[in-house]
Recover the amino acids of this structure.
């Protein structure tokens, strides 16, 4: 059974950079069949897709966050990572990592495995 | 304001049928992109409930079904149970947003 587990700080100061990692177990990250993504849910609000990456390094980002986001993959550690710069209170949220099935030809099959989520607060 | 519009809430008595709509436009659902549905129960991570418009992952009860027509999609829950209470999200893609995944705003399902 595939499992995803995030790691990173629960508290970040305004203007600083958030760094989260997502360790994948029970399966390999090194396959073109899946995309690996980050999603967040601010308190009292809905889900917001942040971005995703293939193991090849190809990325897609939410246009509203693109200027502040970096997503990378480390096949040797079977994990992928998120960096979000210039954090503000509006970035306070539960952050999830997830695996997305890729059919090919630009078609995706939904976010089929999710991590439990990690709460990140932005405060001085 | 989400590009995919869902009703904020729906409710029903146990055993009843409820439906949740997800309304998009010609650049997303109407362009033929698949719609997926997620269930987020209290204190739990989201779970894929329906993929590619009308397919259930293994383990999802057949009380849950999805459909898509034109620029909209729907999730139906028949035989509503207390354990179904939570928030449901639709998700699709948009041709104007460079491969972005879009989520609807979410619909709170309350079992009366």
């Amino acid at each position: 059974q595939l499992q995803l587990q995030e790691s990173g700080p629960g508290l970040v100061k305004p203007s600083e950079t958030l760094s989260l990692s997502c360790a994948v177990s029970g399966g390999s990250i090194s396959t073109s069949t899946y995309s690996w993504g980050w999603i967040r849910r601010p308190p009292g609000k809905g889900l917001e897709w942040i971005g995703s990456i293939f193991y090849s390094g190809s990325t897609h980002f939410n246009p509203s966050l693109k200027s502040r986001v970096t997503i990378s993959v480390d096949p040797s550690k079977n994990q992928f990572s998120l960096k979000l710069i210039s954090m503000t209170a509006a970035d306070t949220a539960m952050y999830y990592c997830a695996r997305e099935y890729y059919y090919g030809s630009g078609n995706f099959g939904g976010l089929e495995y999710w991590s439990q989520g990690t709460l990140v607060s932005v405060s001085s | 304001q989400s590009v995919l519009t869902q009703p904020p809430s729906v409710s029903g008595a146990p055993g009843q049928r409820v439906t949740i709509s997800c309304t998009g436009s010609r650049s997303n659902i109407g362009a033929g992109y698949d719609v997926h549905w997620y269930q987020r129960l209290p204190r739990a991570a989201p779970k894929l409930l329906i993929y590619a418009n009308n397919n259930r992952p293994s383990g999802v009860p057949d009380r849950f079904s999805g459909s898509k027509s034109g620029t909209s999609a729907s999730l139906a829950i028949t035989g509503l149970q207390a354990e179904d209470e939570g928030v449901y999200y639709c998700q699709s893609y948009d041709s104007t947003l460079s491969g972005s995944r879009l989520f609807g705003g979410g619909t709170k399902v309350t079992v009366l």
